[in-house]
């Protein structure tokens, strides 16, 4: 493991991911930031301390990280209770549990839909449920019940009565009592519309001291790639493949160790903005309409917007966000031309196109390596992709193909493991169904 520090703190990443998860559904804009605020207010009233308080607010800001579809979000918004309610919490836990800086946060997320049930909710599956999970459960429910079309103060008393009526059954009584104290005044309710997670956490916990190492950042970026890709079986390993190809090309092009790792991280993050794209567009069997294509093109803008929030992440932000820029200026979102596109971004573009051509899509079968090579050469000839990078890819195509396939197979295994209880997500997965070289 590399201990090289990146200058990037965990708090910046969490803030960006909180914004990202909100993109899954238009109806949950700022949901996670408001849940973090409500949770924090309850935690303060309970005097849980800075260490637990920090984990609480971070868990609340990311609590729906396991929500892979906007259909699931719609169920939660309308209080539809089914097996998916606790399933997405379990998925969030599985995604984060092995990432040491967020291992305690993962356990809180695991139980953020767990009911108190007269005290029996103190334990689940023979393990103690962290009380912070009950706090997030209460805060999440309150925020969901708020009608965003009405002034919050006109709902205050009704919401308080709903919460009070469920004390001891759905919600932990101590958490309810703390909520009632914290939200007795109008100010606490009105502040919901102005809250900013980064401002809140900086104010309450001081300057961030948890700087991520390069390997920690790489591990976390891989987790985020799962959140992006696992929304559809057709893209369940795409970012892992792009990351592997980008890393290999960086090595071949003489990039240093640190920049090669940053290329891999950019590969994991490059489709972050696809969280905002509806699954029916991502999985459409056929050509996208003009309107649908316009929506699809917006994903690289969202990638840029979200990653730009992370201080010290400028290189990765550029490489990841410009993967659809083309040398002739026909790309997006900025329409840059060759000289304005960095070599790292050009590498990401080549890695993305090559991986996409080989992969299965709902509207076509994956190409053979020979077929993909022909298309890559045509794109280089048309001044879309960098010819020297395409030549490097083709000269080493057998090795790069194997590296990509191994990386994607590992990602697919994770996809199946995390979604083991959902046959709808795993039935379409084929671990070795690509055409041979």
From TrEMBL:
<protein>
    <submittedName>
        <fullName>Metal dependent phosphohydrolase</fullName>
    </submittedName>
</protein>
<feature type="domain" description="HD-GYP">
    <location>
        <begin position="213"/>
        <end position="409"/>
    </location>
</feature>
<dbReference type="Pfam" id="PF13487">
    <property type="entry name" value="HD_5"/>
</dbReference>
<dbReference type="InterPro" id="IPR037522">
    <property type="entry name" value="HD_GYP_dom"/>
</dbReference>
<dbReference type="InterPro" id="IPR006674">
    <property type="entry name" value="HD_domain"/>
</dbReference>
<feature type="domain" description="HD-GYP">
    <location>
        <begin position="6"/>
        <end position="195"/>
    </location>
</feature>
<dbReference type="InterPro" id="IPR003607">
    <property type="entry name" value="HD/PDEase_dom"/>
</dbReference>
<keyword id="KW-0378">Hydrolase</keyword>
<dbReference type="Pfam" id="PF01966">
    <property type="entry name" value="HD"/>
</dbReference>
<dbReference type="GO" id="GO:0016787">
    <property type="term" value="F:hydrolase activity"/>
</dbReference>
């Amino acid at each position: 493991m590399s201990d090289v520090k990146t200058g990037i703190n965990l708090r910046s990443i969490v803030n960006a991911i909180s914004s990202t998860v909100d993109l899954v559904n238009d109806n949950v804009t700022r949901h996670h930031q408001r849940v973090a605020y409500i949770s924090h207010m309850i935690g303060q009233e309970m005097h849980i301390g800075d260490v637990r308080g920090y984990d609480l607010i971070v868990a609340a800001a990311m609590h729906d990280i396991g929500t892979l579809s906007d259909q699931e979000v719609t169920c939660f918004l309308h209080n539809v209770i089914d097996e998916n309610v606790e399933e997405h919490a379990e998925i969030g836990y599985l995604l984060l549990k092995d990432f040491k800086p967020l291992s305690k946060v993962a356990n809180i997320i695991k139980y953020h839909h767990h009911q108190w049930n007269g005290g029996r909710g103190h334990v689940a599956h023979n393990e103690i449920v962290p009380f912070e999970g009950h706090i997030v459960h209460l805060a999440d429910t309150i925020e969901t019940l708020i009608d965003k079309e009405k002034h919050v103060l006109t709902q205050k008393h009704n919401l308080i009565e709903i919460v009070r009526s469920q004390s001891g059954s759905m919600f932990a009584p101590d958490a309810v009592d703390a909520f009632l104290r914290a939200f007795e005044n109008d100010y606490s309710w009105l502040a919901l519309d102005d809250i900013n997670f980064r401002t809140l956490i900086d104010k309450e916990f001081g300057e961030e001291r948890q700087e991520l190492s390069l390997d920690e950042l790489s591990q976390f970026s891989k987790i985020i790639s799962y959140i992006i890709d696992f929304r559809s079986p057709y893209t369940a390993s795409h970012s892992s493949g792009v990351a592997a190809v980008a890393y290999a090309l960086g090595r071949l092009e003489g990039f240093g160790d640190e920049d090669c790792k940053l290329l891999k991280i950019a590969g994991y993050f490059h489709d972050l903005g696809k969280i905002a794209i509806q699954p029916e567009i991502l999985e459409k069997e056929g050509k996208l309409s003009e309107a649908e294509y316009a929506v699809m093109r917006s994903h690289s803008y969202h990638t840029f917007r979200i990653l730009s929030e992370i201080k010290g992440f400028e290189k990765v932000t550029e490489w990841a966000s410009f993967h659809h820029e083309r040398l002739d200026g026909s790309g997006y979102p900025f329409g840059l031309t060759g000289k304005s596109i960095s070599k790292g971004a050009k590498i990401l573009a080549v890695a993305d196109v090559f991986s996409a051509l080989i992969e299965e899509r709902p509207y076509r079968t994956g190409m053979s390596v020979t077929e993909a090579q022909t298309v890559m050469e045509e794109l280089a000839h048309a001044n879309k992709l960098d010819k020297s990078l395409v030549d490097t890819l083709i000269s080493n195509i057998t090795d790069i193909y194997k590296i990509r396939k191994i990386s994607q197979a590992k990602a697919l295994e994770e996809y199946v493991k995390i979604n083991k209880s959902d046959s709808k997500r795993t039935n379409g997965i084929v671990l070795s169904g690509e055409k041979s070289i």
